[in-house]
Write a structure and sequence with these properties.
It comes from Gouania willdenowi. There is one protein chain. By secondary structure, this protein is an alpha/beta fold. The chain folds into four domains: 14-87, no CATH class; 89-239 and 538-588, no CATH class; 272-457, no CATH class; 468-531, no CATH class. 55% of the residues lie in helices and 8% in strands. The strands form two sheets. It has a five-stranded mixed beta sheet. A two-stranded antiparallel ribbon has the order 1-2.
């Protein structure tokens, strides 16, 4: 031990204050701190020569100051130190403050509010509530939560990137995926391409927002290493730019995705199929819209009509304007006009309007009642095609049901039976008259035309796909003709498995086929390729509604990508991991 050199910690001596130093840290290993500049030195510097050298080099003008001067500086230093300690919180509290700022930023993005609302409203409101419900001391702790607009933007970007990372991992691990895309312009006239993706994850079909970019789909897919070869479906609105044979989006995607099945949005197809109608029905529809516009487009007329409806005790006080781009508009406009037909007739008593006599015309009113009924049914059909997780079989079943209903209603009309049309039936019962033959023939022609048009836009599914919808029923040779011999054998084996039949009755169709993929890979592979594609662009339409709400004329420079992702996604960002990676400081 004689050759070992042990260095013991230096001790602080009170007389060092005359050199401008006090101490911090434990008594057994103190560190000198300058009371002038608050610089902290190492324990080895606790020597008069080193402390004097600091005073000479950093504060040479204070060498001649008396001890009392440094005592005053010490008191100032201790006062500042206590003030800082009084306002400081622990590292754990800072971590919770960062986590809180992430969660508030997530709520701001999900509700589509401006980023400034965190600092302008949410934090002051939270402090007021905590102050009233708990106490002022607890409210002051909220001051360390950073909710400035820049911080909120960074938090949203972090969470959106985390969600995208999770989504990409899921897509890459999925056997297949399908896309639905649509394009529209925002408030700045910028063309945005919105895309949603359908993929398999944990034995279920999931639908998620993929991106909103200025028409750069392939760049996004390549940059994120998403394999086009796995794409089995692409749903579009049927516009020429999307489905053009030579340079449309579908053609270009088909070049890199050989398994692709292009899908024309079934909601758009249904809307197109219902546009055609006999001339006299079209005339009544146009006159109804013109009547509504006469009242609604003039503020004074609209107010007077509202007052009249209120005085008459009507259920509704206003008519509805028609707009062609809204799928459900015609049905709602006609239904409201029919319900307020008596109020409209009274309103036109002292008004000069070329169509005022229509509301005293039995033929015109009976036609209006029929149009209100039929478009109400078509609205119901349209709504049934919307939503998430809709498969091609569900769409086909809804369309087939409507076509058969139209055929049945047509036969009833031929027998003067109008019970299928509630408004028309009530109108005829109230007026105690029979419907004119010209109206009956128009109704019959319209019903036949609807069935023909729907069949034109929605051809019957190939019977060879029926086994996918229900593999447990007996299928004839025509149904299974598209299957190889081994696949037919597997289908027979599957149809006789009673345990799988119970599972089939309790699960979603696509989930069932994913569940048995390991046991029957060939059959499941064919089934999923048909079930995976979207049937509509409904999610894109809802996405554009969210985009319009986010990118207003007051926020037209906003990069909406991150906000839109958090607003539309169902994937939860990993806030715990993001918080742990963040510097726990109130300014962050």
């Amino acid at each position: 031990l004689d050759h070992l050199h042990i260095t013991l910690p230096q001790k602080f001596i009170v007389k060092y204050l005359s050199l401008g130093f006090t101490s911090v840290g434990p008594d057994d290993n103190p560190r000198p701190v300058c009371v002038i500049c608050t610089e902290v030195l190492s324990n080895e510097a606790l020597k008069p020569c080193k402390l004097r050298r600091h005073l000479q080099t950093k504060h040479g003008q204070l060498l001649s100051k008396p001890k009392e001067f440094f005592e005053n500086k010490l008191r100032e230093y201790m006062t500042r130190k206590k003030a800082i300690q009084a306002t400081c919180v622990t590292g754990g509290e800072y971590a919770r403050a960062v986590e809180a700022s992430y969660k508030v930023a997530k709520l701001i993005a999900q509700t589509g509010k401006p980023h400034t609302i965190g600092e302008d409203l949410i934090l002051p409101a939270a402090k007021e509530m905590v102050s009233v419900m708990i106490d002022d001391k607890a409210a002051k702790k909220l001051n360390v939560i950073s909710l400035s607009d820049n911080t909120v933007k960074r938090r949203i970007d972090d969470m959106a990137q985390d969600v995208l990372k999770q989504l990409l991992a899921r897509i890459k691990s999925s056997r297949f995926f399908a896309l639905q895309i649509d394009e529209s312009t925002d408030i700045t006239a910028l063309a945005n391409l919105l895309a949603f993706v359908r993929y398999e994850h944990n034995g279920e079909i999931h639908e998620e927002f993929l991106f909103c970019k200025p028409l750069l789909m392939n760049e996004f897919m390549v940059a994120n290493e998403i394999e086009w070869g796995k794409c089995v479906g692409l749903s579009t609105d049927g516009a020429r730019a999307m489905v053009g044979r030579l340079s449309g989006v579908v053609k270009r995607v088909k070049d890199v995705a050989p398994l692709l099945t292009p899908v024309h949005c079934s909601i758009h197809r249904e809307a197109l199929a219902t546009k055609t109608m006999p001339a006299n029905l079209k005339m009544v529809l146009d006159e109804a819209v013109k009547t509504v516009n006469f009242i609604k487009s003039r503020p004074l007329q609209s107010r007077l009509f509202g007052i009249l409806c209120a005085e008459l005790g009507s259920k509704h006080h206003q008519l509805l304007l028609h707009t062609e781009v809204r799928w459900l508009s015609r049905g709602k406009v006609l239904t409201r006009l029919y319900e307020l037909r008596d109020e409209v007739r009274v309103f036109f008593v002292d008004k000069t309007f070329e169509l005022s006599d229509r509301f005293c015309d039995f033929v015109w009113l009976s036609t209006l009642a029929y149009l209100a009924d039929i478009f109400e049914h078509l609205n119901g059909l349209n709504l049934s095609l919307q939503g998430k997780s809709v498969t091609v079989f569900q769409v086909q079943n809804k369309i087939e049901a409507s076509i058969k209903k139209f055929e049945l209603w047509d036969r009833r009309v031929a027998q003067n039976n109008y019970e299928s049309f509630d408004s028309l039936c009530d109108f005829l019962r109230t007026e105690e008259e029979r419907i004119p033959s010209v109206v009956a023939s128009s109704i019959s022609a319209h019903l036949q035309g609807l069935g023909t048009q729907l069949r034109s836009y929605f051809p019957s599914l190939n019977k060879q796909h029926n086994w996918i919808q229900n593999p447990f029923v007996t299928h004839d040779q025509e149904t299974i003709a598209g299957l190889a011999c081994r696949e037919q054998d597997n289908l027979v084996e599957l149809s006789c498995d009673s345990s799988l039949k119970l599972i089939f009755a309790e699960t979603h169709l696509a989930s069932f086929w994913m569940r048995i993929y390991a046991e029957y890979p060939e059959l499941a592979n064919k089934a999923l390729r048909l079930l995976m594609p979207f049937t509509t662009t409904y999610l894109c339409e809802t996405g554009f509604s969210a985009l319009v709400g986010l990118k207003t004329k007051y926020r037209n420079r906003l990069d909406v990508g991150s906000d839109l992702r958090l607003k539309l996604t169902s994937i939860q960002p990993d806030i715990g991991t993001l918080t742990a990676a963040m510097q726990h400081h109130p300014s962050h």
